[in-house]
Amino acid sequence: MLESFMSSYPLLNVSNVSCSYSTRSWGVLGKNEVKNVLHNVNLEIGRGEIFGLVGESGCGKSTLAKCILGLIEYEGEITINGRKRALRPSYAERRQGAFEVQAVFQDSGSSLNPVKSIGWILEEPLRAHGVPSVSGKRSNSAERQARLEEVLGLVGLEASYKERKPGELSAGQKQRVAIASALMLSPGLIVADEPVSALDVSVGAQILNLFRDLNRQLGLSLLFISHNLELVYYLCDRVAVMDKGKITY
């Protein structure tokens, strides 16, 4: 009965979401102005679906991603896994949200601490959020290491990579580490904002195929954001186009 109920609604539901920024014009007499970025956006992503969002730069794609991730305030409703996101979430709600949705951004190198090892970086979500072990207690070091090596394998990296530092990795390997970091808490949804635009074509194709493999192996849902129509149509089950803060299908 519960499984039937859980599968009856989408993993992500964005309903009438709008977002605006306050800007100030230059000069002594500059005035505060409101710039409307999103206008009553609606979309749904099903469980295990790869959903593509495409549009020109500045159309609001990344702003929508930030709303879904809970990084900025908005008007409307965003529901993930049947739970409505609070506009000003408490610590407990932010912690719960970390298990539901994670992000992969364009510049993976900037999100990796250059002085820490890959192993330390990937373990940090487990230390911060206290992922419970099978015994019901907080995960210990051995369990974290096992999860770390499991996820490295999922993204196509050997266990030895946990001893390396970001500066020793290629751009494609850094993006694989960023994807691994997003996977550590086993979220149901990953928001990937232009994740291959800074990579060579061949390396970018490998990352796209990795997303597809993770979707098939883990049942992972993916919001794939890009300005490149060819990439979106290659990877995604459904595609929406954003223009001037509105979505068209």
Structure description:
The protein is an alpha/beta fold and 249 residues long. It has one domain: Rossmann fold (3-Layer(aba) Sandwich). It contains 8 helices and 10 strands. The longest helix has 18 residues. The chain is globular.
Give the topology, please.
Layout (H helix, E strand, L loop, with lengths): L1 H5 L5 E13 L7 E14 L4 E5 L6 H8 L6 E6 L2 E2 L6 H10 E4 L13 H12 L11 H14 L16 H13 L5 E5 L7 H18 L2 E6 L2 H7 L2 E6 L2 E3 L1
Parallel strand pairs: 3-8, 3-9, 6-7, 7-8
Antiparallel strand pairs: 1-2, 1-4, 4-5, 9-10
Throw out a few tags for this protein.
249 residues; alpha/beta; Rossmann fold; 6-stranded mixed sheet; 4-stranded antiparallel sheet; 8 helices; 10 strands; disordered N terminus
